[in-house]
Every structure is written in C-alpha cells, then in structure tokens.
C-alpha cells in the first residue's frame, strides 16, 4: 500500500455508555493531529446507556469524499450484538478487535479476517477503571495498524474528553498503553 | 467539532447578535453550543417556548438592525413558516438553519432531503422567496453561515441554510476564518429610536389600493437580482460526460464517490452540485443539456429537486431520478449500480 492511497474505514460499536463515541472522536482527533484527512460520523439520536451505539471513522491521505461507511476495513466491538451486526460487513482481509471479556463467542467470519480478542474489560478493571475498556481496545487497534500511536492518542485525549473527566486522563493514558502492549506481546505486528 | 457546532461557531464569527431556538434532534448541538458561547461573547441566547416564538423573536431582533438567527429541524421549520412569510413581507434579514430529518409529520430523526420543496418554494404564504444554501461538508457549513448573514443583510431576505442530520452530526477538520465581508448597505430602515430622524415603520400589511402590488413587484425585482448574481454551483467532468448526476448536500459526496468509480470502469460520468438551491443553477444545467446527455438526479427524498432539474433541462435530454426517502442514505455502490443500469438501458458505449 502506497502512502497516498492509504484509506481506512473503521466502525467502532458496543453498548451506549461504553464510550464508543468518545473512542471514535479520539481516533479522529489523533489522526487529524497527525495530519491525516478524517471524517467521524456517529449513529446519533435515540441511543442511550444500555442501548447500542456505533460510529464510523474514515482516515485517509487524500480528501475523503463519502463519509458513510458501508463495508469497513477494521471493526472494534465491545459487545456481542455489535459483532453480529457489523462483523459480516467487514471487508475480506480486514481486522477485528473485540473485547473477549464481554464477547464469549468465536466469530464466524471469512478466514482472511484477522481477529484479535483482547480481554479489555479485565485489563481495565486491573487498572482500576472499568470504564477504560474502550481505551484498551483503541490502544490495541493503533498498535496493530501502526499508522498512529497510542501515545499520539493519549496526547489528543484532553481535546475530546469533557473537562469534568480530566482527572481520568492518567488512567486512560495507561489503558491506551496497556492495549498497545497486549498486542505487542501476543501478536505479530 | 461536529457540523452543528462548527455552524454555530461560524455564526458567532459572522457577527450573529442573537440566537433564538427550541430544541429538536438532530440539531440540538446548535442551541447547546450557543447557550454557552453567546453569553461568553456578551450576545443574546434565548431558548424560546416554541418554534413560533423563536422565529418571531428573530423578527423582533432583526427589526432593530441586529443580526439574528434561529435553527431547527423539519417539523420545527414547518412551524416557523408563518414567521418567515412575515419576515419576507417586512423585508427583514434573517438566517434560518434547517438540519433536515425524515418526514412528513414527526417522521424520524435520520438524515433527509425531503424539505427541498418547502425550502425553495417558500413554505409560507404569499409571493416570496428565500435564499437557500446547501452545504456538503462541515467546512461548507462554516462557509455557508458566513455567507448567509451577508446575503441576508444585502438583500433584506431570509437565508435558509439547508443541511441534514449527517452534516450536523459528522466531524471533519475545519478552518474557522472570517473572510472579508461584502460591502453592505446601511440599515437605515431599522428601528433604533426615531430621535432626530423620521420614524421607521416595519410592516407586512399593505392595504391601500395597488400598494401591495407595488410592494410585490419591488420584491420580485429584488429576487431577480438575487437570481442574476448569487447562483453558486460546482461541476466536475461534465464536458465529456454521457451521464451527468445532479445532487446537493451530503448526497453529492456519495455521488462524487460513485462517479469516480464509474470513471474507473470507463463510464463517462460528471456531476453538478447546486450550492444555492434557490436561486437554482438553471442556466448552468441548461447549458450542459445543450449536448445530449442523460441527467440523473439523486436525492434523499421521493423526488423534489428533480423537478427543478427538469425545468432546467427543458426537455432537451432525459432526466432520471433515483432517491432514498424516509431517512435512508444511498451508498456509493448502490449509485454505481444505477449508473451501470443507465448505460445499459441507453446503450451508451463505454
């Protein structure tokens, strides 16, 4: 893949309340700070805590024409319902990052799709912040794809995290790193 | 920043003195953002008790010569139509934002383009027009807002910014920069206190014999000036195109993706994107229709702008419509299929 044709469509999905939208915004902000073209599109409206939530992020080197994602290169999921909904729409050769502490099934997907199960919830609980599972999976994704870094995301975090949550910046930074380390330790990158 | 927030910040940059509005999805980020930023700037923010109140507050603020705006989504914009008609009659500048959702009725909260008729034909009563700007990116949400306040003041008209839920909710990097303002006429008609000058009267009631006709003709002349000077549209690769796709707003971006893919397959596709929906780029489209091509209009509606495309093409070429109503968004592949079908049906050689 040449740098100029770099075009990555990502869907992030899970329960409302898991910080799905924040994860998408953080990914978009990190990419923007790294000088990439980016669009972020949330599924908006009736989603509430406990319901389903998802967002689409496109990152590219050239201007992005269409902000709507139909078939994605990468999928980050934090619950089973989202895996069932968005798993089949992954492109062949795509990447699936899933929270294996919340999803107990083996996904039935094309063999060409790389699957990285990561016990994000458990890792987040270890860090003392159950809510940071979203940062763990994002850290894992960034490490795996390699075009952005978990440190870059940590630097971009204050811009997207509401000020009243800024006391959680250290633990979320740690969660991003933990996700990246998990991938470094267990997968060929 | 999401599109709604970018648009709100652009309004502040444009010198909006007062925002009045009532919440409705998918534009709630606008009043939420304004409720924080307008007081910071020492300007006016009012969450009104209804959309009717909001548009009439705009009328009042505008009558005093201030830059005023409101925003809503489809059902709320319907409620504002009476006020917009009065604004037109009284020749008051105003900026109204419609982040369109599915309709009719309460419909749904998904992105839609089904308010085209209402926006371009004037949803209220009487002989009047509103300028309609249709951005297709978050950056254009900003650019359209900056332009909207200037156009409103220059022509003493309502300028409607017509976007949809996708543009309101999506985030893209933007540049927020004030461009040099147009040279605008002084607001010597405004109600600023009559001390030392003749009384100004703002009204839309003209009862005397022939008086309203004269007023209507004055408005008509003004609208013709707008049609002559303010049409904005973008066109791409139409010169050799055998299929010309016409679309606005976010749909135009999906079309752009499909057109690029079609070109890769050797199908000669170009596109035209109206940025002003009124005044409509009739002449631009008519010119393109002088050579035989197939026109494909794509909308997130059951077919509204296609009528203006047909008027512009005036029978010189076939006009085909493809639409997804009810808050559904067409995909690039879906449009590509439609384009392929057209080449087959019309036996276009590729």
Description of the molecule:
The complex is a heterodimer of chains A (189) and B (350). By secondary structure, chain A is of the alpha/beta class. In chain A, 37% of the residues lie in helices and 24% in strands. Chain A has a six-stranded mixed β-sheet, with helices on both faces. In chain A, helix 5 (150-160) runs antiparallel to helix 6. Chain A starts with 6 loop residues before the first strand and ends with a helix. Chain B is an alpha/beta fold and 350 residues long. Chain B folds into two domains: 3-229, Rossmann fold, CATH 3.40.50.970; 233-345, Rossmann fold, CATH 3.40.50. Chain B contains twelve helices and twelve strands. Chain B has helices at residues 3-13, 29-40, 51-63, 74-89, 116-121, 138-155, 165-169, 211-229, 249-264, 282-288, 305-313, 332-345; strands at 18-21, 44-47, 68-72, 94-100, 131-133, 158-164, 233-236, 243-246, 269-274, 276-278, 294-299, 319-323. In chain B, strand 1 (18-21), helix 2 and strand 2 (44-47) form a beta-alpha-beta unit. The interface between A and B is medium-sized, with 18 and 21 residues.
Can you lay out the helices and strands and say which pair or pack?
The complex is a heterodimer of chains A (189) and B (350).
Chain A lengths: L6 E9 L4 H14 L3 E6 L9 E9 L11 E6 L2 H7 L3 E10 L14 E5 L1 H7 L6 H13 L4 H11 L8 H18 L3
Parallel strand pairs in A: 1-4, 4-5, 5-6
Antiparallel strand pairs in A: 1-3, 2-3
Chain B lengths: L2 H11 L4 E4 L7 H12 L3 E4 L3 H13 L4 E5 L1 H16 L4 E7 L15 H6 L9 E3 L4 H18 L2 E7 H5 L41 H19 L3 E4 L6 E4 L2 H16 L4 E6 L1 E3 L3 H7 L5 E6 L5 H9 L5 E5 L8 H14 L5
Parallel strand pairs in B: 1-2, 1-3, 3-4, 4-6, 5-6, 8-9, 8-11, 11-12
Antiparallel strand pairs in B: 5-10, 7-9
Helix pairs in contact in B: 1-2, 1-6, 3-4, 9-12, 10-11
């Amino acid at each position: 893949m040449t740098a100029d044709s770099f075009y990555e469509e990502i869907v992030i999905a899970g329960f409302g309340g898991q910080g799905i939208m924040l994860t998408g915004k953080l990914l978009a902000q990190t990419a923007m700070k790294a000088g990439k073209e980016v669009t972020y599109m949330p599924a908006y409206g009736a989603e509430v805590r406990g319901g389903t939530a998802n967002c689409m992020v496109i990152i590219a080197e050239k201007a992005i024409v269409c902000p709507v994602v139909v078939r994605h290169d990468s999928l980050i999921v934090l619950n089973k319902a989202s895996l069932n909904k968005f798993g089949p729409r992954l492109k062949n050769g795509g990447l699936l990052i899933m929270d294996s502490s919340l999803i107990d099934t083996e996904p039935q997907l094309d063999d060409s799709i790389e699957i990285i199960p990561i016990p994000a919830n458990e890792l987040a609980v270890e860090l003392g912040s159950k809510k940071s599972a979203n940062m763990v999976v994002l850290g894992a994704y960034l490490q795996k794809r390699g075009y952005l870094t978990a440190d870059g995301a940590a630097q971009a975090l204050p811009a997207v995290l509401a000020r009243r949550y800024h006391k959680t910046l250290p633990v979320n930074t740690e969660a991003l790193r933990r996700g990246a380390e998990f991938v470094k330790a267990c997968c060929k990158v | 920043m999401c599109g709604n927030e970018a648009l709100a910040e652009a309004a502040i940059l444009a010198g909006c003195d007062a925002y009045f509005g009532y919440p409705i999805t998918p534009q709630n980020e606008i009043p939420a953002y304004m409720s924080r930023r307008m007081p910071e700037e020492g300007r006016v923010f009012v969450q009104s008790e209804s959309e009717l109140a909001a548009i009439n507050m705009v009328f009042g603020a505008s009558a005093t010569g201030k830059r005023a705006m409101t925003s809503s989504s489809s059902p709320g914009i319907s409620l504002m139509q009476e006020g917009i008609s009065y604004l037109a009659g009284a020749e008051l500048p105003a900026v109204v934002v419609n982040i369109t959702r599915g309709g009719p009725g309460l419909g749904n909260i998904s992105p839609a383009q089904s308010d085209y008729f209402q926006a371009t034909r004037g949803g209220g009563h009487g002989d009047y027009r509103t300028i309609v700007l249709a951005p297709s990116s978050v950056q254009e949400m900003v650019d359209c807002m900056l332009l909207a306040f200037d156009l409103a003041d220059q022509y003493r008209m309502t300028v409607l910014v017509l976007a949809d839920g996708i543009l309101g909710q999506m985030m893209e990097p933007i540049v927020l920069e004030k461009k040099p303002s147009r040279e605008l006429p002084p607001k010597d008609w405004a109600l600023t206190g009559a001390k030392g000058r003749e009384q100004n009267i703002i009204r839309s009631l003209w009862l005397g014999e022939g008086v309203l006709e004269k007023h209507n003709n004055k408005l008509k002349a003004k609208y013709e000036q707008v049609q002559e000077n303010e049409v904005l549209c973008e066109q791409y690769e139409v010169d050799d195109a055998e299929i010309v796709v016409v679309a606005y707003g976010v749909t135009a971006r999906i079309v752009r993706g499909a057109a690029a893919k079609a070109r890769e397959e050797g199908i000669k596709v170009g596109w035209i994107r109206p940025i002003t929906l009124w005044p409509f780029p009739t002449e631009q489209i008519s010119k393109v229709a002088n050579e035989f091509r197939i026109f494909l209009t794509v909308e997130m509606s059951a077919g509204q702008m296609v009528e203006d495309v047909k008027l512009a093409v005036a029978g010189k070429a076939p006009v085909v419509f493809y639409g997804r109503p009810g808050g559904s968004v067409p995909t690039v592949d879906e449009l590509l299929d439609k384009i392929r079908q057209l080449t087959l049906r019309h036996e276009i050689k590729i």
